[in-house]
Task: inverse folding
């Protein structure tokens, strides 16, 4: 018998960075319209293929095909396009504001706009989302005022959070947008707990949890999955696989599993993998999962396959770790262009109508920006000492009151 060699350890090697060709052969694709659509009460064991297939509705010509076509009206489609264009315009303007020194920090969701805009359109006003910093589309598509978001980004006198949060960490109970936490993966345990509470209270509201590919490596992700599996609360468990976690490629957190959606199978949770740049597919899978949750059929895991077309944040430069031209090589295209192609191909809108919609969106976002700038920026707004003490405790503890008195605020 031969002696075994030394045991081995696999150290993931970074994918080709700058100077290499863009490489997406690892992304499992399916033909548009090919994935079957089970009934919402189908047994999880009968739909495991959907964790490996890719649910797509729009074909290359912009035509909706297959059983996942959500049958949207012209108004639904134009509303979706308007929301995505608004997010894109808002992101572009806030990035420029950071470059101009008018805010300290910003994070765009360029290329991922369909994920949150499609998802939000299928939720009701009483439902609660638990977003990360990459889901500003949930807030914008819910109709939250852009000016308030900008006031926070500019850290001006009208910042609703008085400078106590990072510029992009919004919160709005009334718009079903749970306070964003910079501590990633907490969204999963919080959303699952909120959904459990909703069921215990006998409410009809459902929860929606958000996490990035990289953050699934956190133990909170697995704890949330286990509680969702055991107690079957009404929660939609969303993993946004945008291929990158800052400069770390998605395959490090994915390990040797072939998809992130496959994570759900071991928990017995129905798991769907969807083309995240296909607005129609995004609405359709969200509706399927939300219908299940509302019908008392439990949680659904959704892996949104998309691509982070911009930098992680204003603090990094992807040219240092990604091949040049990688965004152009992404096989699922751009979500805005794909929805526009659909509207044009079906005759639901003309090019002139789309152009005027884009102009209208620009004017609306510019108007909100001007209104926000009228309240100043972080440079014109010296921080107030009283902001450190107010709205933090319902009843201020004596030692903080003493400090506040000492500060004379
Ligand atoms: C618990 C925790 N660990 C580390 C970080 C630092 N961090 C901020 S963003 C990020 C990458 C997250 O990547 P991913 O989950 O893929 O989300 P994406 O930025 O791609 O949307 C890391 C590691 C953090 N905010 N929280
Ligand atoms: Mg990511």
Result:
């Amino acid at each position: 018998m031969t002696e075994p060699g030394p045991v081995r350890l696999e150290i993931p090697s970074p994918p080709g960075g700058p100077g290499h060709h863009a490489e997406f052969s690892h992304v499992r694709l399916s033909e548009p319209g090919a994935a079957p659509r089970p009934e919402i009460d189908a047994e999880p064991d009968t739909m495991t293929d959907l964790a490996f297939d890719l649910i797509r509705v729009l074909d290359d010509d912009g035509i909706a095909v297959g059983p996942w076509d959500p049958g949207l009206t012209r108004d639904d489609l134009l509303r979706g396009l308007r929301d995505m264009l608004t997010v894109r315009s808002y992101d572009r303007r806030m990035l420029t504001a950071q470059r101009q020194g008018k805010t300290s920090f910003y994070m765009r969701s360029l290329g991922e706009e369909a994920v949150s805009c499609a998802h939000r359109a299928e939720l009701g006003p009483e439902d609660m989302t638990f977003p990360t910093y990459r889901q500003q589309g949930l807030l914008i598509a819910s109709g939250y005022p852009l000016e308030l978001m900008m006031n926070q980004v500019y850290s001006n006198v009208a910042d609703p959070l008085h400078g106590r949060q990072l510029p992009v960490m919004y919160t709005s109970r009334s718009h079903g947008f749970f306070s964003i936490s910079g501590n990633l993966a907490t969204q999963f345990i919080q959303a699952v707990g909120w959904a459990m509470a909703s069921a215990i209270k006998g409410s009809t509201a459902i929860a929606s949890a958000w996490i990035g590919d990289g953050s699934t490596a956190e133990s909170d992700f697995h704890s949330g999955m286990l509680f969702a599996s055991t107690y079957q609360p009404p929660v939609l468990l969303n993993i946004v696989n945008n291929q990158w976690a800052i400069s770390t490629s998605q395959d490090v957190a994915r390990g040797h599993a072939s998809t992130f959606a496959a994570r759900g199978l071991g928990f017995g949770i129905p798991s769907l993998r969807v083309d995240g740049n296909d607005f129609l597919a995004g609405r359709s899978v969200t509706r399927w999962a939300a219908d299940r949750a509302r019908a008392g059929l439990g949680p659904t895991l959704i892996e949104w396959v998309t691509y982070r077309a911009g930098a992680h944040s204003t603090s990094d430069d992807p040219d240092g770790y990604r091949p040049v031209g990688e965004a152009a090589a992404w096989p699922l295209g751009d979500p805005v262009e794909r929805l526009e192609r659909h509207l044009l191909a079906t005759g639901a809108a003309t090019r002139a109508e789309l152009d005027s919609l884009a102009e209208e969106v620009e004017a609306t976002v510019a108007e909100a920006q001007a209104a926000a700038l009228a309240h100043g920026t972080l440079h014109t707004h010296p921080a107030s000492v009283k902001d450190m003490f107010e709205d933090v405790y319902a009843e201020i503890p004596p030692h903080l009151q003493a400090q506040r008195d000492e500060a004379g605020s």
Summary: The chain has twelve helices and seven strands. The radius of gyration is 22 Å.
